[in-house]
Automatic annotation (TrEMBL):
It comes from the Eukaryota. It comes from Camelina sativa. The lineage of its organism: Eukaryota, Viridiplantae, Streptophyta, Embryophyta, Tracheophyta. Belongs to the chloride channel (TC 2.A.49) family. Keywords: CBS domain, Chloride, Chloride channel, Ion channel, Ion transport, Membrane, Repeat, Transmembrane, Transmembrane helix, Transport, Voltage-gated channel. The chain crosses the membrane at residues 93-117, 137-163, 184-209, 253-276, 288-306, 341-360, 380-400, 466-495, 507-528, 534-561. It is a multi-pass membrane protein. It is found in: Membrane. This is Chloride channel protein. Residues 713-777 form the CBS domain. The gene is LOC104724456.
Length: 779
């Protein structure tokens, strides 16, 4: 993940050949020949060597930061002053209209996703079942494994060749985006396309993966597509939607999209809102709560309407399954002290197993990254190998279990069942017998969970069956996550947790008043808490899934215990993956060692600044030779009495200003003319890959010698901190305000007006501890 140090924010020591005016500027001699600062603005020879490359999906790519701060330059102020009431109403209406469209689109995609999975997987399982009934066992295996291999190869090919960013869950990338980290194609239309179809093929291929994590990423991609007004590359553009040309508004839309994804995956609208609040979003406010709740409500209504259409049988094999609703209402919720002890035990075991799961997932991901970086063909070969292994386990393990006589009074035709999904699958058994392990392995993941959660009968699954299934799902889930297909972690974790929860319920037997189906739910909750470390959102999602509010106290207890136990060993799985992928995520707390440092201790490199009225050639040279995205603008004589910090100018704004060629031959201020000739929307952020680049500029030698007034595009009210401010306070300020640049100013007068600029990479442990290796990271 380590790449060349070419980060857009940080200010390195830069050697420029042929750029004399630029060199003079750095050394402190002004363009008119007068002597300015007699030393570089930042007299340090430090470099920030933290990696600017991160793994997004299954590919390495450069990363940048997002501008969540309101950039208060003259164009912004003029735009807000000139807005009429009707335009303000239009802006408010569009925010709610987009929230509605996000909910509508995510709900439809979630339904079609389930419809496709149920029908494709149903066809495969019916084909396999029919061949098994005819005792054509080898043909059945090759049909089963062949279908899985074809589907897996299709999913892997989409990910490897079209959108590598679509691989994996997508939740870590969405979480990082909402924290202020941007990476190319993380929310692109191609990523959306592959996420949808890759998830359908991957889940239908029988992998131990879920479609819930990919649905969160899908919702975020839909929100981004709508928020930027479509895609010019794919000729899908809507001018009336191009209103949100800034990262701040897009962040809010993508938060709504992530919440809608959870609501569509689990049919849990309130759980979706809480998931966005607890796990995904880094910034929250009441108005955003209203809009996310509205979005998830739209999802719930859309799903309910579409499911009603399918009750008549017009949706093929899509029936009660698919959009998972594990109704365990029939279980009686009565518990005593021994039951509470069993729940505590489940929580402790879930915490230990969950932390071990996270540890193993981390090791497997690091191993797979070495394979994936060798190229698309290796990614596909890895997927095919895991597919064959999964098929062998699903088809081979049921042969290890004995056939069980059908329960008395179950009804003719229900045991053994002939349909694609049932709790009583015959597999290789004689008449009136069923194979309980095949009912779990040769089924869709949703139906397997429904079978584990069932409360109809106590003993349909043997203790040995539950133990074998738990071990198989636990390790298959670990080796499957990280291959180049869209894959969620929710379903593998719920499967493993439900199996060992039901196993504990069977072992307790008459000692417990709780039903084994309820033990399955508590086992799933404990494992989810141990891996993902969420509490409130998981609790509500599970209760919405199972439609059983009476379980609330026990689910809360088991989640709290499992999270507390697991936190003693490592971080949550999504936090761990964010770190492993190299995404510079800003936590909501400062590290302890930061209290021993101040802001000036970590600013790095030589600072490159511009005068308020700067020569075009100087700006062009700076943009060409660096990848910085923020430049301090200094007011200096004769425009002011002394050197003062005017503010910060963004790279994107400088490029637009240079392309407009509104230059002056004289070194004078003429910002009012620029304000009259340009509009704020000219400086709005373009969609993915549409922004101007330095290569797009065509400037003559004569224009290079002219001047441009930077004041109209300069944020004249940047956030600044004293150089003596505690680094811990600076980190909390940076994160809570959603900043990209934080100016460090001197404490004493008579010095250059700015000491340096802090970006998120300056707060990363590898940078700080690299500068001060003697510091104890725990103190």
């Amino acid at each position: 993940m380590d790449g060349d140090r070419s980060e857009e924010h940080h200010h390195h020591d830069i050697e420029i050949e042929g750029g004399h005016s630029f060199e003079r500027k750095i050394s402190g001699i002004l363009d008119d020949g007068s002597v300015g600062f007699r030393q570089p603005l930042l007299a340090r020879n430090r470099k920030n060597t933290t990696s600017q490359i991160a793994i997004v999906g299954a590919n390495s790519c450069p990363i940048e930061s997002l501008d969540y701060e309101i950039f208060e330059n003259d164009f912004f102020k003029q735009d807000w002053r000139s807005r009429k009431k009707i335009e303000i109403l239009q802006y408010t209406f569009l925010k709610w209209a987009l929230a509605f469209l996000i909910g509508l689109a995510t709900g439809v995609v979630g339904f079609l996703n389930n419809l496709a999975v149920e029908n494709i997987a149903g066809f495969k399982l019916l084909l396999t079942g029919n061949l098994m009934l005819k005792e054509k066992y080898f043909q059945a295996f090759f049909a089963f494994a062949g279908c899985n291999l074809i589907l897996a190869t299709a999913a892997a090919s989409l990910c490897a060749y079209i959108a590598p960013a679509a691989a994996g869950s997508g939740i870590p990338e969405v979480k990082a985006y909402l924290n202020g980290i941007d990476a190319y194609s993380i929310l692109a239309p191609s990523t959306l396309f592959v996420k949808i179809f890759g998830s359908i093929f991957g889940v239908a291929a029988g992998f131990v993966v879920g479609k819930e994590g990919p649905m969160v990423h899908t919702g975020a991609c839909i929100a981004n597509l709508l928020g930027q007004g479509g895609s010019r590359k794919y000729r899908l553009t809507w001018k009336w939607l191009r209103f949100f040309k800034n990262d701040r508004d897009r962040r809010d839309l993508i938060t709504c999209g992530a919440a809608a994804g959870v609501a569509a995956a689990f049919r849990a609208p309130v759980g979706g809102v809480l998931f966005a609040l607890e796990e995904a979003a880094s910034w929250w406010r009441n108005s955003l709560l209203w809009r996310t709740f509205f979005t998830t409500a739209v999802v719930a209504v859309v799903l309910r309407s579409l499911i009603e259409l399918c009750r008549s049988g017009r949706c093929g094999l899509f029936g009660k399954g698919g959009l998972i609703m594990f109704d365990v209402n029939s279980g009686t919720v009565l518990y005593s002290t021994p039951d509470l002890l069993a729940v505590v035990f489940l929580g402790v075991v879930g915490g230990v197993l969950g932390s071990l799961y996270n540890y193993l997932v981390d090791k497997v991901l690091r191993t797979y990254s070495l394979i994936n970086e060798r190229g698309p063909r290796f990614k596909i070969m890895l997927v095919m190998a895991v597919s064959v292994l999964s098929s062998c386990c699903a088809f081979g393990l049921p042969w290890l279990t004995q056939c069980t006589p059908c329960p008395i009074g179950i009804g003719e035709g229900k045991c053994p069942s002939v349909g694609r999904s049932s709790i009583y699958k015959s597999f290789q058994c004689p008449p009136n017998h069923y194979n309980d392990l095949s009912s779990l392995l040769l089924n869709t993941n949703d139906d397997a969970i429904r079978n584990l959660f069932t409360s109809r009968t106590e003993n349909e699954f043997h203790i040995s069956t539950l133990a074998i299934f738990f071990v198989a799902v636990y390790f298959l889930g670990i080796i499957t996550y990280g291959i180049a297909i869209p894959s969620g972690l929710f379903i593998p974790v719920i499967l493993a947790g439900a199996s060992y929860g039901r196993l504990v319920g069977r072992l307790l037997g008459p000692l417990s008043q709780l039903d084994v189906g309820l033990f399955s739910l508590l086992g799933a909750a404990s494992f989810l808490g141990g891996t993902m470390r969420m509490t409130v959102s998981l609790c509500v999602i599970l209760l919405e899934l199972t439609n059983n509010l009476l379980m609330l106290p026990l689910v809360m207890l088991v989640l709290l215990i499992s999270k507390t136990v697991a936190d003693c060993f490592n971080k949550g799985v999504y936090d761990q993956i964010v770190t492993m992928k190299g995404l510079p995520y800003m936590e909501d707390h400062a590290e302890p060692y930061m209290r021993n440092l101040v802001a000036k201790d970590v600013v790095s490199g030589s600072l490159i600044s511009f005068s308020r009225v700067e020569k075009v050639g100087v700006i062009w040279q700076a943009l060409k030779m660096t990848r910085h995205n923020g430049f301090p603008v200094i007011d200096e004589p004769p425009f002011t009495e002394d050197y003062e910090l005017c503010g910060i100018a963004l790279r994107s704004h400088l490029l637009v200003l240079l392309q407009g060629k509104r230059f002056s031959k004289q070194r004078t201020t003429y910002g009012s003319q620029i304000l009259r000739s340009c509009k704020a929307r000219d400086f709005g952020k373009a969609g993915l890959g549409k922004g101007l680049k330095i290569e797009d500029l065509d400037l003559s030698d004569e224009e290079m010698e002219m001047y441009v007034d930077l004041h109209p595009i300069t944020n004249t009210s940047p956030y600044t901190v004293l150089e003596t401010l505690s680094l811990a306070k600076a980190a909390i300020l940076f994160r809570q305000l959603g900043l990209r640049h934080l100016c460090v100013v001197p404490k004493t007068p008579g010095r250059p007006p700015i000491v340096g600029i802090l970006t998120r990479h300056d707060f990363m442990p590898e940078h700080v501890l690299g500068l001060y290796p003697h510091i104890d990271p725990l103190k």
